[in-house]
Design a protein that fits this description.
The protein is mainly alpha-helical and about 250 residues long. It is about 75% helix and about 0% strand. The chain has eight helices and no strands. About 5% of the residues have low confidence.
């Protein structure tokens, strides 16, 4: 098994250590359990996102003083919790909900900012994100899309390439240098965003396949939380990329 999602890697269900034996005594991972936990994590994310959204701007329409706290606190806190969850899968029942709560602050703040700049963009991004999720889930369950080994390798390689581009972009910005074109609203920038959206969406297909394989192999119960966490990571990425793409399209009008 292989997944392009960095938190659902090849060894996730295979290298669980001695804790797996204890977990199996309490029950095995199920698809319904993973779906329910994914819904719960999404609910937590929405709750804190709504709170951050309501506090992002003051009554005068200006950015509130605490805006940066929500953005950077949510982004850094989410990254730390994601790394902890990836390395300590047994902690997922605790760290996955915490990740959802913290990431919600980040999403709520940046969503409020994007919506302030481009009215209605958040609603469009939400519809596109969940529309993509359910469309790909239907295509996967119906057999229209199959996660073959070549498919998995291709998506994983593209995901890694995008990660390196973003990492290089952030590093260069520290020195006042911007990678040309890809962050602009020109055709190259829009094309790049479209490519990233497609890769982010295809990661969902790999995650569906990976979770299904974990259920078939009888992974321990706590892996339901880990599988739900992995899906949330992919959905957050897809949503943010839709925001970026839509903002580039609207800025051309």
């Amino acid at each position: 098994m292989r997944s392009g999602n960095p938190v659902l890697k090849e060894s996730t269900f295979l290298d669980l250590g001695s804790g797996a034996v204890v977990a199996r005594d309490a029950g095995a991972m199920t698809l319904n359990g993973t779906v329910n936990k994914t819904g719960f994590l999404l609910l937590l994310t929405v709750l804190t996102a709504a709170f951050a959204w309501s506090r992002a701007f003051g009554a005068d329409g200006e950015i509130a003083p605490g805006f940066a706290v929500y953005v950077w606190g949510g982004a850094i806190g989410g990254l730390v919790l994601a790394m902890v969850t990836a390395f300590k899968k047994q902690w997922a029942p605790v760290t996955a909900p915490l990740y959802a709560l913290v990431e919600g602050f980040f999403l709520g703040a940046i969503s409020a900012l994007y919506n302030h700049l481009y009215q209605g963009i958040v609603f469009q991004a939400v519809l596109l994100t969940f529309g993509t999720l359910f469309t790909l889930l239907f295509a996967y369950r119906s057999g229209l899309i199959k996660a073959t080994e070549n498919f998995k390798l291709g998506v994983a390689a593209a995901t890694g390439g995008i990660f390196l581009v973003y990492l290089a972009s952030m590093a260069l910005r520290l020195f006042g240098v911007n990678i040309p074109f890809i962050h602009d609203s020109g055709l190259i920038g829009i094309g790049f965003s479209l490519f990233v959206v497609v890769i982010a969406a295809l990661n969902l297909v790999l995650d569906f396949d990976f979770i299904e394989s974990g259920v078939e192999e009888g992974a321990p119960k706590y892996m339901e939380w880990y599988g739900a966490f992995g899906l949330l990571v992919a959905l957050v990425w897809l949503y943010v990329e839709f925001l970026r793409l839509l903002s580039k399209l609207q800025s051309r009008n």
